[in-house]
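Quick note —
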Amino acid sequence: MPRKPAQQPTYKDPVSMMMAMLLPIHSAATLDWLVDATTTAAERTVNATFTFVYVEEQDGRLERRQPASDLRRRSQQRAIDAFGRVALASKLDPREAPAIAEALDTGKHITAPASEIFRGLIGESEALAAQRELGVDTISFVPLESAGERIGGILLMHVGQPNVEHVGLLAAHVSCATVNLRQAQAARDSGVIDIGRSVFDARKIEADLQRELARAQRYKREVSIAVIEATNLTLLRERFGAFLTDRLLQRLGEALAQNARDIDVIGAFKESGYTMILTEASPEGAESAARRLLAIAKEAAAGDGDVPGLELHLAAGWATSPADGASSEAIFAAAERRMYGPQSQVA
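Predicted structure written out below.
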């Protein structure tokens, strides 16, 4: 029996609907969960009852990625059983499917009957029979690209005719999320980058600070830190999701790094802030730097005007060794006291 289109949730406007469906794509922690989120979004925005996400390998073949949930895997298996393991192979060579190869080469998605999409892989009668069995009216293949480079593609099996603009928008967001997941994995592999903030992680900052403290003690010099923390990060993640919130943190880190001196080092502070090591900075210099950084951070933390309420609330503090102590623990504690005490600076 043909499957009915998924019932659409009620939203005030189409933009709100698309935002609600696309946010889980960007908050997916792994590629498998990204497949699940993409499948859900495709079902609710472009009436795709079956969705397959492919990632391009170095040899040009497309690897079909498994969804994380058993429910989605069982759903996909229905389509695989209907069309066969040649059409929906775990490794697809685009050269054997001319329509898919053309879409990848031109970067333009196509929407056509199954017999056209799977031409070269299965016969026309088999394709039409499978399409009828699943209650599918048409199929789209959409290339995934980022910065002009191919990432893979999405195969969507629709009930009815899809909205072409929505199909393209979905693919653009999946492409972006896939690249972000790859970059996050590369950052994890490097071991020195805080993934959410795109700066040095707290372990490296601690090691660098201890070296600077030892050098300062040896040569009777001062070394300072300035810290900035987002005080509403948890609330933003609950309301807007991890992707948009962490992107705001990344913008903040980039802005701070661009305005740092060449001899300063910026990295993560706790779960929601930044530390800047201010080499040979006096207490007055550290306070001045914290105020300046807070002004820079305020502009970067303003968020996107198209998403009301997406804005970081910030607090800043500073400390200097040896005046505030000789250890990293002592000067971090002093910086936090200033951050939330009478001398606090907030934005």
